[in-house]
Design brief:
256 residues; mainly alpha; 3 helical TM bundles of succinate and fumarate reductases; two-stranded antiparallel ribbon
Length: 256
């Protein structure tokens, strides 16, 4: 078709072409995966502030949580940094889940067209990526509903009382089991994700693949141990009771 003798170009935008391509989706999955992995590592390091104990009623992890809520204050609104972080992470999560699901479907469709059976050597982490990803997503929803929105509260919770909240929750063996099992699943998923991300970005090479594999395994191991350490130490009593109970936090808030 043409308008006044000029042809109309109906070619899609380059970004749209890239999004539709398999390699484009792999890049999106890799970039968002690295972003989410970076948050997971930072979150693990923040959780380790609990190892400093209750701090005479001013737990280090409580002060850290307060710092995150007041970054940029008074120039920026309260919780501005946290909400910005949440929006970025939610967007990355949606893009990651969408592209990974589309790539999985494309791979299944390609295998269905090829009737010849292929023997591909793969690790348990690689074979269970869809399942581990789904389990992690379910756990993240549970975790947010428990400690962020406090919609699910099998144990008493109070805003701002991070140490007391964690101590109370991790006195329940089944909550400890859920969290430790979740980080083990995260480890399987993260280990393969970091390695495949290196492949997608093109930094892998037969001469240095050993380095990227060990780096992925090392980062994953540290992350899993760091996450599992806090609930385990609370449950075993290695970390002391909070000086101020959750009930006291609720009472103090109601009198302000």
């Amino acid at each position: 078709m043409s308008t006044h003798g000029q042809a109309i170009d109906y070619r899609p935008h380059r970004l749209k072409i890239l999004w539709r391509s398999t390699i484009g989706k792999k890049y999106v999955a890799a970039v968002t995966g690295v972003l989410l992995a970076g948050f997971v590592i930072a979150h693990m390091l923040g959780n380790l502030k609990a190892l400093e104990g209750p701090g005479n009623g001013h737990a280090s992890i409580d002060r850290y949580a307060h710092f995150l809520r007041t970054i940029g204050s008074p120039a920026l609104p309260h919780d501005f940094f946290l909400w910005t972080e949440r929006i970025v992470l939610f967007t990355a999560l949606v893009l990651h889940v969408t592209t990974v699901t589309q790539l999985y479907r494309r791979n299944r469709a390609a295998q269905a067209k090829d009737h010849r059976p292929k023997r591909i050597r793969s690790t348990i982490s690689a074979r269970t990526m869809p399942l581990s990803g789904l389990l992690i997503l379910v756990f993240v929803i549970f975790h947010v509903l428990q400690f962020t929105t406090m919609t699910i509260h099998p144990t008493p919770l109070a805003k701002g009382a991070v140490y007391a909240n964690a101590y109370g929750a991790f006195q329940k063996w089944w909550i400890v089991l859920i969290y430790v099992a979740a980080v083990v699943v995260l480890g399987f998923h993260m280990n393969h994700a970091l390695w495949s991300g290196a492949q997608t970005s093109g930094v892998d090479n037969p001469d240095r693949n050993w380095f990227w594999r060990r780096l992925a395994t090392g980062v994953t191991a540290i992350t899993v141990i760091g996450f599992a350490l806090v609930p385990t130490l609370f449950w075993t009593g290695a970390l002391p009771k909070p000086v101020t109970t959750v009930a006291a936090h609720d009472g103090a808030r109601s009198t302000q």
